[in-house]
Design goal:
InterPro entries: Beta-prop_GEMI5_1st, Beta-prop_GEMI5_2nd, Gemin-5, Quinoprotein_ADH-like_sf, TPR_GEMI5, WD40/YVTN_repeat-like_dom_sf, WD40_repeat_CS, WD40_repeat_dom_sf. By secondary structure, the chain is an alpha+beta fold. Helices cover 21% and strands 29% of the residues. The protein contains 23 helices and 63 strands.
Length: 1255
């Protein structure tokens, strides 16, 4: 069992960075420079319906991130895939099974192409044209046709010319034919067979081409309607009918009353009535006869009775009340019916897609898309046969266009604006994938997956859409599928494909770091897989919810996995992973659950941020951050009594009162035997609170009063993890007999795990070493005891392995090594029935689940994928070559003269000024360190400080130092005497001593007399060796300008540089020096030394000259800074001391200390601490050495400080080293090597014997 729950996150906005094989393997570019391969496991092993995967990660597949991926058409017969990187390299990889290991593969590179890398261009697209040919295109327009069989690449750069490619797609139908999209919106379809030619070139978009996709079927039938759809026509007809409604059909007829007219109207007089005597039937005009006027008025409604309305409302309320309430299941079922993932099958979709193609409406719909029948096409329609269709989409507006074989636009459309999710944040990322001939999938630029039928268009050549799912919360940017690239018209897929259509899946990736697998047949999601973009530093099971597991991830989020179990409760299965990222804002290094408060989770980041997360509820809640009180990364934290939160970082320990948010954190200190510890780790238990120090000590404090109980030094370097054994395991009803055991790990080079026992051996309760566990080959990071079984320990390490230890036997019983890089965090499953199940995370960005029984140590094989080496530093170029290649600035035109850039740091000769001192510092002896300690202890300041300490602290005198066997001065040999040692390249030649002279360098840190003695000694050595430049520069550093001028004038060594320093004394002095220089010139001309007048002397190079010029300007701090930047710490310190600026000298010592720490010079670092007056730091530094004489000095320093426990620890380490050092037998000494003369004599004798034998 080796199932991966959390995968590495795909690279954002790389639309071609994901590929899926026909049998379900998923390959993509992971975080940074990694390659991730997801291997599907047998779902029957899983025990659930969800497909499980095992991740294989190559941590450094390329030197930059992966831009595009493609899988070989010959898969799964030959499991090959190719990757293209931003660095321009293209590689083909193979998956090879590991013998005697189930589901384990090794990823190795078989071929590599560096054409784009040599041109320094990013790979815009890659693809397999067939099983043995790969086509790639770079952003500068270079198209490479790569034959894998012969491993020969042919480059064409004449087709694209000034166009910049942005994407590429190889045709699945025509070999060596490729479509290339450019940033100018132009699409090229190029045939690379033979000499190559452009099939057609079109301006496809008004913006960048985001993605290209070929139709999986070569010949398709495209239907186009001549009129609008039935629905739209019916709506228009209804509007027309509504406008033509007869007004007389509305209202009620009514006769006007007699008084309707105004009485002021004059009645007609009968005198002038011409129709008075006419007969009614007479021919001609007839008299008008008034009739009743019929008027249409609104029907009057009787006023409603208020009481009647109230009674009706009462009846409705009683009716609703008497109805049975719907259960939660009914509500869920109703919600599913209205959701995009509904299981309802439409009767229309049961028909064949080829006979009844789909057509989708433009509005967002959350039910299954309706299938259009031919009858739905209103009016006439036409069918056209189209071949070799190509789909393109723009990167800015999301315009989709379909192009025919001849380059003619067949259909076009834009994703409707009402479909776009306006709440989604982030940039738009449009992409498309031609899933089936009648299904085109499009990412709408936000978080929705949209589909359309490109084979049915309306009379305006427009395509209509439908939403597939909106499962992503942010930015969907990549679509991939395992459907065949080549699909036949009579069958659903390619004949060579073993994947039936009902197993075709669509994968999408979004900015919410989720990979979603979707079934287009059932319109249901198959699985949602969470990914992470950083290391998984800590994994911890919830103490009260066995199925909840928290993870701290380096991508700025905390993830909580709600695990599921199989039906028989024997395995963990994929559940739901929730990410909490709001207000986290940093690399999460550690976290811990509250032991009693439900859903309360504390976390800490690399930016010293501490916060709390409420993990309850189904929605992600923002984290609550606490006041910042530490500096640097926080790797250790734990909960204490009630709501006390202890956090260690940056050498400090603070306590938060979480229930009192207004209260500031309290800084805690641990002081043992008069010395304050620098703390690195903390662990709280009811039996005691453990605090680990940077010097390898473990202190036990009373858990409630936080008073020191006891302490012990377990290691010599920083403590990383400390864990109490469980007081009671789930497998027993009694207290564990091993409850007093404490497991401790550190960054010590021994890589051991020490088991400490808290017992009383007659001298009270103290910490005693009980057992050591060794086997790791790198630093041990995290330790976890098994909560179900006694004395079973889990450990993680930088050596990528996770080991399970039987502490009683002291043996390793299981080794898991599938993280390929550092294994950082691990925990046991909290379920008692899964007592041997482990959850682990590491630097491969994966959370893995495995069982101890499946990985015994005898079957351990380290799986190492092929990775590229880290970038090496550029080789230094000789000065002559630099001068030849670089043109002179004066030869360039004014516009071409640009600012110079310092590419490398020049090294000043360290033996130019203080040659003897540097040789002595190279071989720092224990004798000088001891003398420095003696002088420090005898000083009045030290005695005063020791007197002010606690009465328990005892001060030792120098007489109590034991005799130390150290190297004698005459036995010291410099590293420069080694003939095989490589000479460093300096700006100028450094001074070489002709003989070894030992000097007591500790006098440099003494009083003024000691310092002047060192100066005089170095001056004398320079004069004896004839190094006039060094002698002059040393006088300048001491401030003896007049003596320097006189010294140079007597030896005809004055030069413009030395004359330029004289104004620092006075203007008159500068005039006198100028007269001396003129006299020197005349003297040299008279003696025939004219050639020496223009002689240019280096005086140690630019560093020393700059320092001297700054001293002439009375800028002492600037001169010291120049020397420190050049790593000339002894010179800088002596300069500051010579000018009596002790504060500046102390700053130099601190910088010197940091440099020694970075370069691993333990003895020199201890010397700096002694010079600063810190005996304790010097002792803790020397204890890291494995040399006996330095360990002896460290033990004596600890005793002088009253650190008896620490001194005992050092003596024990020294005894262990002595016991492990084999004694040399004097009888087995090697014979001296023969000299060159002896070898020549021997060769002459052999030649003579050969000649005699021939005779």
């Amino acid at each position: 069992m080796n199932e991966t729950i959390v995968f590495p996150s795909p690279n954002w906005f790389q639309v071609s960075g994901i590929a899926v094989s026909s049998d379900g393997w998923l390959i993509y570019g992971g975080p940074s420079k990694s390659i991730c391969v997801l291997q599907p496991l047998n779902s029957s092993n899983n025990g659930s319906g969800n497909q499980s995967y095992q991740a294989h990660v190559v941590t450094r597949g390329h030197s930059e991130k992966i831009a595009c991926v493609d899988i070989s058409p010959d898969w799964p017969k030959n499991k090959f895939f190719i990757t293209g990187s931003v660095d321009g390299s293209v590689k083909q990889w193979s998956l090879q099974s590991v013998e005697h290991a189930q589901n384990d593969v090794i990823i190795k590179s078989t071929h590599s192409l560096d054409v784009h890398q040599n041109e320094k261009e990013v790979v815009a697209g890659i693809g397999y044209s067939n099983e043995s040919c790969v086509i790639s295109v770079g952003v500068f327009g270079n198209i490479v046709k790569w034959d894998l069989k012969s491993n020969v690449a042919k480059t064409n750069n004449k087709f694209l010319r000034k166009f910049k490619p942005s994407c590429m797609a190889c045709s699945p139908h025509v070999p060596f034919q490729v479509a290339v999209g450019t940033k100018q919106g132009v699409v090229f379809v190029i045939d690379l067979s033979g000499q190559g030619n452009v099939v057609y070139k079109i301006r496809a978009q008004d913006d960048d081409i985001a993605t290209l996709s070929w139709c999986p079927q070569y010949e398709v039938l495209l239907k186009r309607s001549f009129k609008e759809s039935i629905k739209k026509s019916n709506e228009v007809e209804k509007l027309k009918i509504k406008d033509e409604i007869n007004p007389n059909d509305s209202g009620v007829g009514k006769n006007l009353p007699d008084d309707s007219f105004d009485e002021s109207i004059v009645q007609e007089d009968d005198t002038f009535d011409i129709y008075k005597d006419h007969e009614p039937d007479e021919f001609g005009h007839k008299k008008f006869k008034p009739q009743d006027i019929l008027v249409k008025v609104v029907k009057e409604k009787e006023p409603n009775d208020f009481l009647a309305e109230c009674m009706k409302l009462k009846e409705d309320i009683l009716k609703i009340k008497n109805e049975s309430e719907q259960s939660v299941d009914n509500l869920v079922e109703a919600l599913d019916k209205t959701h995009v993932d509904s299981d309802e099958d439409s009767s229309d979709t049961s028909q064949d897609d080829n006979d009844k193609p789909q057509h989708y409406k433009g509005k967002p719909r959350y039910n299954k898309a309706k299938v259009w029948d031919n009858e739905d096409l209103h009016g006439e329609s036409s069918a056209h046969v189209q071949k070799h269709l190509l789909a393109t989409i723009g990167s800015k507006y999301g315009s989709v266009k379909i192009w025919s074989k001849s380059g003619k636009m067949v259909a076009c459309s834009v994703v409707a604006s009402n479909i776009v999710n306006k709440k989604a944040k982030g940039p738009n990322c449009f992409t498309l994938l031609w899933y089936k001939p009648n299904v085109l999938l499009i990412a709408d630029g936000k978080s929705q997956l949209v589909q359309c039928n490109p084979l049915i268009i309306n009379w305006k050549k427009k395509i209509q859409w439908s939403v597939v799912h909106t499962l992503h919360k942010r930015g969907l940017y990549a679509i991939a599928t395992n459907a065949p690239r080549l699909q036949s018209p009579d069958k659903s897929g390619d004949e060579s494909s073993d994947c039936p259509p009902d197993q075709w899946r669509v994968w999408t990736a979004g900015q919410d770091r989720n990979l979603i697998c979707y079934n287009m047949v059932t319109n249901k999601k198959v699985g949602v897989y969470n990914t992470c973009g950083g290391f998984i530093y800590t994994v911890q099971s919830c103490p009260y919810d066995a199925k909840s597991v928290a993870m701290s991830v380096g991508d700025g989020a905390v993830r909580i996995w709600e695990a599921d179990t199989s039906e028989d409760d024997t395995k963990l299965t994929l559940g739901q992973v929730t990410s909490f990222w709001q207000n986290v804002q940093g690399k999460v290094l550690t976290l811990c659950w509250h032991p009693t408060k439900e859903n309360l989770l504390a976390f800490a980041t690399g930016e010293s941020r501490v916060g709390l997360i409420d993990a309850g509820g189904k929605t992600e809640r923002p984290a609550r951050t606490l006041a910042t009180a530490l500096r640097g990364g926080i790797y250790s934290m734990c909960w204490g009594h009630e709501f006390d939160l202890y956090v260690a970082g940056g050498g400090q320990l603070v306590r938060y009162c979480v229930d009192k948010p207004d209260k500031d954190p309290v800084t805690m200190t641990v002081e043992f035997e008069g010395q304050k510890w620098s703390l690195s780790a903390v662990s709280w238990h009811s039996r005691g609170m453990l605090c680990g120090s940077d010097s390898g000590g473990v202190a036990l404090l009373e858990p409630y009063s936080r008073e020191l109980v006891t302490a012990a030094f377990v290691f010599s370097k920083m403590i990383h993890s400390m864990e109490w054994h469980p007081q009671q395991t789930s497998g027993s009803s009694e207290e564990s007999p091993y409850k007093d055991l404490i497991a401790v790990s550190s960054l010590d080079k021994s890589f051991d795990i020490v088991i400490v026992e808290y017992v009383d051996k007659g001298d009270g309760l103290k910490l005693h070493k009980w057992k050591s566990l060794n086997g790791h080959t790198n630093a041990v990071l995290q330790l976890v005891w098994n909560p179900h079984k006694d004395a079973l320990l889990l450990s993680t390490s930088h050596d990528s392995s996770i080991r399970v230890w039987d502490v009683l036997a002291g043996t390793c019983i299981a080794i898991f090594g599938r993280h390929v890089q550092s294994s950082l965090g691990a925990t046991w499953s909290a379920l008692p029935q899964l007592s041997s199940t482990v959850l682990s995370g590491g630097a491969d960005c994966c959370l893995r689940v495995w069982r101890v029984e499946d990985y015994p140590p005898e079957t351990y094989t380290e799986v190492k994928h092929e990775i590229i080496p880290k970038k090496l530093k550029k080789k230094k170029v000789k000065k002559d070559e630099e001068n030849e290649e670089a043109p002179k600035e004066t030869d360039l035109p004014l516009a071409a003269q640009v600012a110079a850039r310092v590419d490398k740091k020049f090294k000043a000769p360290k033996q130019f000024l203080l040659a003897t001192l540097h040789k002595s510092l190279t071989n720092c002896s224990a004798l000088c360190l001891r003398k420095m300690a003696e002088r420090l202890i005898q000083s009045e300041d030290f005695q005063q400080n020791q007197t002010n300490n606690s009465e328990k602290t005892s001060t030792k005198t120098t007489d109590e130092f034991e005799t130390i066997e150290v190297l004698k001065p005459e036995d010291i040999k410099s590293d420069t005497d080694d003939p095989e040692a490589k000479d460093e390249e300096f700006e100028v030649n450094e001074v070489k001593e002709t003989e070894d002279v030992y000097v007591e360098y500790w006098k440099v840190f003494g009083n003024t007399n000691d310092l002047n003695e060192m100066f005089e000694f170095e001056m004398q050595r320079h004069v004896e060796q004839g190094r006039l430049d060094s002698c002059i520069m040393l006088s300048i550093f001491r401030g003896h300008i007049d003596a320097m001028i006189q010294f140079a004038s007597q030896r005809n060594a004055l030069c413009p540089f030395l004359v330029s320093l004289s104004p620092c004394v006075s203007f008159k002095y500068w005039k006198d020096v100028t007269q001396l220089y003129l006299a020197q010139i005349e003297r040299m001309v008279a003696t025939g030394q004219r050639h020496r007048i223009g002689e240019n002397k280096s005086y140690g190079g630019s560093v020393y000259r700059r320092a001297a010029l700054m001293l002439s300007l009375h800028d002492l701090r600037g001169a010291v800074t120049v020397l420190v930047d050049a790593d000339l710490f002894p010179e800088a310190y002596m300069l500051a001391k010579a000018r009596h600026v002790d504060a500046l000298a102390e700053e130099v010592l601190h910088a010197w200390k940091v440099d020694c720490f970075r370069n691993g010079r333990i003895e020199a670092l201890a010397m700096c601490y002694l010079a600063l007056g810190n005996l304790y730091k010097a002792a803790t530094t020397l204890v890291k050495s494995n040399k006996q004489e330095f360990l002896t000095v460290a033990a004596e320093l600890a005793k002088a400080l009253g650190q008896d426990t620490f001194a005992t620890h050092i003596e024990d380490k020294k005894s262990l080293i002595v016991s492990e050092t084999p004694e040399q037998d004097p009888d087995e000494d090697l014979k001296p090597l023969p000299s060159k003369i002896d070898l020549m004599k021997h060769s002459i004798e052999i030649d003579g014997e050969d000649s005699e034998s021939e005779d």
